[in-house]
Write a structure and sequence with these properties.
Elements (H helix, E strand, L loop, with lengths): L1 E9 L3 H19 L2 E6 L4 H7 L5 H8 L3 E6 L18 H11 L4 E7 L12 H4 L4 E7 L9 E6 L2 E6 L5 H16 L4 E6 L5 H14 L6 E6 H10 L6 E4 L1 H13 L8 E5 L5 E5 L16 H13 L4 H16 L2 E2 L9 E2 L2 H10 L2
Parallel strand pairs: 1-2, 1-3, 3-12, 5-10, 8-9, 8-10, 13-14
Antiparallel strand pairs: 4-5, 4-11, 6-7, 11-12
Helix pairs in contact: 1-10, 1-11, 1-12, 6-7, 8-9, 10-11, 11-12
This protein binds nicotinamide-adenine-dinucleotide.
Nicotinamide-adenine-dinucleotide (NAD) binds next to helix 4.
Amino acid sequence: MNFNVAVIKGDGIGPEIVTEAQKVLDKAGEKFGFTLSYQEVLMGGCSIDACGEPLTDEAIAVCKKSDAVLLGAIGGNTSTSPWYKLEPSKRPEAGLLKLRKSLNLFANLRPAYLYEELKQACPLKEEITEGGFDMMIMRELTGGLYFGDRKTVVENGVKKAYDSLTYDENEIRRIAKRGFDIAMKRNKKVTSVDKANVLDSSRLWRQVVEEVAKDYPEVTYEHMLVDNCAMQLVRDPKQFDVILTENMFGDILSDEASMVTGSIGMLSSASLNDTKFGLYEPSHGSAPDIAGMNKANPIATILSAAMMLRFSFDLDEAADAIEVAVKKVLEDGYRTVDIMSEGKTQVGTVEMGDLICQRI
Ligand code: NAD
C-alpha cells in the first residue's frame, strides 16, 4: 500500500520538525506495511526567495494530485524579515491562504488532549483535570461570518459596519457528516455548538445537524449554546468528545480548548475536504527565534502526521502506535526545552524524533 504525500517543510523550524515527522511515518510504515512517497513543495518565505511568490500554481498542482499534504510552518520574523516589506498578497502567509482555498478545505480539526505527564502546564485546577481529557474541536472553515458580505457605510454622518453570517444547509450537512464520521472513530459523542436561541443561521445549523444525527444511531448527540460551551470547557472538559461548530465559534473555542492543554509544541491540526484528502500541520508557527538550533518540539507535527494516517489513509492502528509512542516518551521523562520541567531529561528535535521511532 503506497500513498503520495506532498511535503511542505516551509520556513524557520519547519524543515526540522517535518523531517522528524517523516522519520516517524517511515518507521510506522515499516511496522504496519505501508509506504509513503514524498514530493517536496515550496511555500512561504522559501518560495518567495526561490520563485518570487509564496505559492506557485505548480506547487498547488502537486498538492492537488497527492493523497494528503504534510506541512511544517511558514513565515519569518515579522519585524526583521524582508518578506514582510512586500505587499500583503506577496507575503509568506498569503501562500497558506491560497493553498487552503484551492484545496477547498472546509473542516478544521484541532484535538485538545491533556497528557498526564504535562498536566503541570494546564492552568485548570487538578480536581477538574483528574483523569485527563481528550476532545476534538471540529470547526467549519470556509463559511459563516468570515466569508459573508460586509461593508462599512456612513448614514446621516454616522459610520456603520455590517458583517453577514450565512450558511446553507449543504455547507452544514457536509461538516456535520464529517463530525459524526470522526466521532465514530473516537468515543462516539458529538456536541453541536450554536446560538440557536438568537441566530437564524444557528437554528438551521441545529435542524440540519439533528437530521444528520439520525444516520448515526451509535453516536450520542447533544447540542449546546456557545456561551455555555465556553464555560463548560473550563468547568468540566472531560464531558466532551467531538465539538462540532461553525467558523467563528470554532475559532474562539479551539483556542480556548488548546490553552487548557498547556504547550504550543504539542498541538496538532488537520483541515479536510469532502474526500479523504487533508492538510496536516502543527498549530504553532515557524518559531524563527529557535530555527536551526535543534530545539524545536517536533511532537505537534508528528501527531499531525498520525492524524494523516487516521483520517486520510484509514491506518488507525499505525496512528494509534505513533500516539502511544509519544505518550511513552513523555512517561520515560524526555522533554524538549519548551516542555522541560525539573528532574526530566532535555533532548533536541532530532533526539525526540529518534526516541519516538524507537517506541513504535
Ligand atoms: P510561533 O508559534 O512561531 O512561536 C511562538 C513562540 O512559541 C516562540 O517563542 C517559539 O519559539 C515557540 N514555539 C513555537 N513552536 C514551537 C515548537 N514546536 N517547539 C518549541 N517552541 C515553539 O508564533 P510567532 O512567533 O508569532 O510567529 C512566527 C512566524 O510564524 C510568523 O511569521 C507567523 O506569521 C508564522 N506563523 C505561521 C503559521 C503557520 O505556518 N500555519 C501559524 C502561526 C504563525
